[in-house]
Design brief:
Blueprint: H1 27-32, H2 47-99
Organism: Micromonospora ureilytica
Keywords: Cell cycle, Cell division
Protein name: Cell division protein DivIVA
């Protein structure tokens, strides 16, 4: 997979395919990453190293965004449940008050 031209693949459930042994990048690892300069006769960094690192960052970012989306769905579900419960409680209280 090349970071310049492709996006990480996703499974049908939206999760990114990867090994169970894969460890996610931590922010300090991204900040402290250094690349080896290319050999004699060329300037700059080894593009393969840079693209491999960008691929890894892209996979981790995709996982973070998937977790964020799941968290937002869960939050919406909980809020909807709370609203239903509050409505039911208010209705029951009104019925009790009217019965008195």
């Amino acid at each position: 997979m090349n970071a310049k031209s492709q996006r990480p693949g996703t499974a049908s459930g939206g999760a990114t395919y990867r090994s169970a042994a894969y460890t996610s990048l931590l922010p300090w690892q991204v900040r402290e990453r250094r690349f080896v300069p290319v050999g004699l006769g060329r300037r700059g960094l080894n593009p393969d190293d840079v693209y491999a690192f960008l691929d890894r960052v892209a996979v981790d970012m995709a996982a973070v965004y998937a977790a964020l989306a799941e968290s937002r769905r869960e939050t919406a579900r909980i809020k909807a449940g709370l609203r239903r419960w509050q409505t039911d409680q208010a209705r029951a209280r009104n019925e009790r008050d009217q019965a008195r």
